[in-house]
């Protein structure tokens, strides 16, 4: 499943008393056929809505219209109260107290459906549910009533922004989600200065977490999963006392920049794998750095991903492809030529076949382009390209830059 959610899911598992880690086995049950409209062939029990949402978002940013069946599957997963669970095999059965809904799946679905447009009824209900489970400190936990964490609070901020809400105005007992994030930011005199913690540890101490830091930077900037290059927050460079969300974002970005400086990538936080690259969190870091306006470190890490992440994405599935596409989008790079890999094509191949209407529209468009070419348009386009190349600025139409880490 998506690495970015692993810490949050494990936290949720602890809350609900599950006996084994959420992602212990990603193979689907042999007795249960997966929906044809779902992206990926791994067990969707813990990440179905999340990976579907990321896939739809990534396709949308790349200019691809997702198949209607895929969008309908996502909207059909919503419970009557507006929340989403990771996966409901039987949507004819109403959600009840045993349905494991959570804030992360719900907020991701909101961001995807808001981007696609035309689903206000679904997103309005979902945002209403998110507001109803906001904690007194202004943040959100993975599950309703769970302690606030940086990742969950940040993804909900992204959902609020996606539907036109101002996160600062969404309060509980006078506290906004930005207030919650500030309490999870490490001070400049602490080990891991400027980073965000996922949650306080058992002793109430804040421990730097790269994944949470990437999420915290985006959340503090009021941005969601999809973001373009930013201009940089109006905050001091380096680590300064975080009295504002903008300064907390700047501090977090500085921490990520330092963490990425040596190799251009983050390393795994899993026991026994500390020397292994963390591709997913590196991609998330690229997005965060780009949003903050830290283009140089974002570009360096995106270049590393272009050279090294293709096999990881192929092994990991749609959410991984989506993370790389969103990283490319954030830095202005071309996801269709990502180190020689067409990420958009690879992602699309993990999902449902485009509808007959979509296929027909694509064929009609290709026929139209052919007609234009036959009429002489293609000749003049070729001449124009030759002229551009002749004056030495052909690079202007090449692919673009790169991005992020935890």
TrEMBL record:
Gene Ontology MF terms in the entry: catalytic activity
Matches recorded under InterPro entries: Prenyltrans (IPR001330), Terpenoid_cyclase/PrenylTrfase (IPR008930)
Keywords: Membrane, Repeat, Signal, Transmembrane, Transmembrane helix
Family annotation (Pfam families): Prenyltrans
TM helices/strands, residue ranges: 379-397
SUPFAM superfamilies: Terpenoid cyclases/Protein prenyltransferases
Skewed-composition ranges (Polar residues): 347-356
Name the UniProt record assigns to this protein: Prenyltransferase alpha-alpha toroid domain-containing protein
């Amino acid at each position: 499943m998506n690495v970015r959610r692993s810490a949050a899911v494990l936290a949720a598992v602890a809350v609900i008393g599950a006996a084994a880690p959420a992602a212990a086995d990603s193979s689907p049950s042999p007795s249960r056929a997966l929906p044809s409209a779902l992206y990926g062939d791994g067990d969707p029990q813990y990440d179905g809505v999340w990976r579907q949402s990321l896939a739809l978002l990534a396709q949308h940013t790349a200019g691809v219209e997702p198949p209607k069946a895929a969008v309908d599957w996502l909207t059909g997963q919503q419970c009557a109260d507006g929340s989403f669970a990771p996966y409901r095999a039987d949507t004819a059965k109403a959600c009840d107290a045993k349905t494991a809904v959570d804030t992360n799946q719900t907020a991701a679905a909101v961001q995807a459906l808001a981007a696609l447009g035309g689903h206000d009824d679904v997103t309005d209900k979902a945002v209403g549910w998110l507001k109803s489970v906001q904690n007194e400190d202004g943040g959100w936990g993975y599950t309703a009533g769970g302690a606030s964490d940086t990742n969950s609070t940040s993804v909900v901020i992204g959902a609020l922004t996606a539907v036109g809400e101002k996160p600062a105005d969404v309060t509980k007992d006078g506290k906004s989600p930005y207030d919650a994030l500030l309490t999870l930011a490490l001070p400049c005199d602490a080990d891991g200065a400027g980073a965000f913690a996922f949650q306080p540890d058992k002793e109430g101490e804040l421990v730097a977490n790269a994944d949470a830091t990437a999420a915290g930077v985006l959340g503090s900037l009021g941005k969601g999963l999809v973001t373009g290059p930013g201009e940089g927050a109006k905050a001091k460079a380096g680590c300064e006392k975080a009295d504002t969300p903008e300064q907390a974002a700047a501090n977090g970005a500085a921490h990520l920049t330092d963490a990425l400086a040596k190799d251009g990538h983050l390393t795994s936080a899993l026991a026994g794998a500390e020397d292994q690259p963390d591709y997913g969190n590196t991609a998330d870091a690229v997005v965060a750095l780009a949003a903050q306006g830290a283009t140089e470190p974002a570009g360096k890490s995106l270049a590393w991903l272009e050279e090294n992440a293709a096999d990881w994405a192929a092994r990991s599935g749609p959410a991984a492809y989506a993370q790389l596409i969103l990283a490319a989008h954030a830095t202005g790079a071309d996801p269709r030529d990502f180190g020689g890999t067409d990420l958009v094509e690879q992602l699309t191949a993990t999902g449902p076949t485009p509808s007959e209407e979509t296929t027909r529209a694509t064929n009609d468009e290709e026929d139209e382009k052919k007609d234009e070419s036959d009429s002489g348009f293609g000749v003049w386009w070729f001449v124009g390209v030759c002229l551009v190349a002749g004056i030495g600025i052909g690079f202007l139409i090449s692919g673009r830059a790169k991005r992020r880490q935890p």
